[in-house]
Amino acid sequence: MGEFELIRHYFQQHSAESTPASVLLGVGDDAALLQPPAGEALAVSVDTLVSGVHFPDDAPAEEIAQRALRVNLSDLAAMGATPLWFTLALTLPEASDDWLRDFSRGLFEVAEAYGISLVGGDTTKGPLTITVQVMGSVAPGLALRRDGASAGDYVLVTHTLGDSAAGLASLQGRLEKAVSEDVSAYLQERYWRPTPRLEAAAQLAGIASAALDISDGLLADLGHICAASDLSAELFIEELPLSPALQNATSQDQARQWALTGGDDYELCFTVPESRMPELGALIGTGALQATVVGRLGTGSGVHCTLHGEPYDSQQSGYTHF
Ligand code: ADP
Ligand code: MG
């Protein structure tokens, strides 16, 4: 199959089936023609996944596609933006039909689930690399930026942390404990198919003062909010939300370490002024939002961890980084 037949068969036909009105012209021409919603800002983000660096060399094609699009959608969620369109630059060592079929199935499954349309891309030969660029829209005043936080704001995270690092350890046979199939399946799914927190982000518009998605671990990513907002943070280690599966799979110390530095969770870390905490509490109370207070911002700089009020050195907690 030649390059153009490949594009037509695996990407163009499928994307044409679900083209929304905002796509005036999609895959197939020199450029796509897109119509953003009137008055909204365009949120644009790109992420590259390299085989052997961002996922194991022997990863299934469907999971690579799932992960590539999901991590990009997470960036739109972290900005408070609604997904609209994406492009795909694909570098392949060979044009394998089986691989492309599985990859495009995974890709369009996610695209349909989150209402985002493939509008173009590029296909080249070389070491397996997947670049996805996502575009979404957000009212300019409601974008969830990193630089809007103030001293005294609470720090929260959605759902649970550390699952993805445990999932990768499970995939690579590095878990220290034997776990049930249910537990390893849950953790591995958290690694391969992170959930972009678009619904949570929609609830946070007008409430959160700053937000980002946790790709490098809470410690590093909260550091980005602190740096952008010119503040410090205290992180309450005993409050870190850890899933039952994670606690089942490893020691408390290791679980906390993964939650802090494991990365790949794609949960949201966001800050909320004290005055908006009642509204936020109501969202959590009704089950509309799953989030946990894990810290508080102050003046100064850097992220400082405490365990029940005592200083906690995340680097000396008994775990050596892999
Ligand atoms: P050009 O030479 O003008 O850059 P290409 O041959 O790269 O055109 O691509 C032809 C058309 O196919 C373009 O509309 C491009 O957006 C689309 N395309 C190429 N590769 C992909 C892909 N992997 N996924 C989706 N669309 C693609
Ligand atoms: Mg091209």
Describe this structure in words.
There is one protein chain. The chain is of the alpha+beta class. It has two domains: 138 residues, 60s Ribosomal Protein L30, Chain: A; 158 residues, Alpha-Beta Complex (Phosphoribosyl-aminoimidazole Synthetase, Chain A, domain 2). 36% of the residues lie in helices and 25% in strands. It has ten helices and 13 strands. A seven-stranded mixed β-sheet has the order 8-10-7-11-9-12-13. Strands 3-6-4-5 form a four-stranded mixed β-sheet, covered by helices on one side. It has a two-stranded antiparallel sheet with strand order 1-2. Strand 1 and strand 2 form a beta hairpin. Helix 1 runs parallel beside helix 3 and helix 2 runs parallel beside helix 6. The radius of gyration is 20 Å and the shape is globular. It starts with a helix and ends in an 11-residue tail after the last strand. The C terminus is likely disordered. Bound molecules: adenosine-5'-diphosphate (ADP) and magnesium ion. The site of adenosine-5'-diphosphate (ADP) has 13 residues, from helix 1, strand 4 and strand 5.
Summarize the structure.
The protein has 322 residues and is of the alpha+beta class. The protein has helices spanning 3-17, 61-79, 97-114, 163-171, 181-192, 198-204, 218-229, 244-249, 252-261, 277-285; strands spanning 23-25, 33-34, 41-50, 82-92, 117-125, 129-138, 154-158, 210-213, 232-236, 268-272, 291-298, 302-307, 310-311. The chain folds into 2 domains: 3-140, 60s Ribosomal Protein L30, Chain: A (2-Layer Sandwich); 154-311, Alpha-Beta Complex (Phosphoribosyl-aminoimidazole Synthetase, Chain A, domain 2).
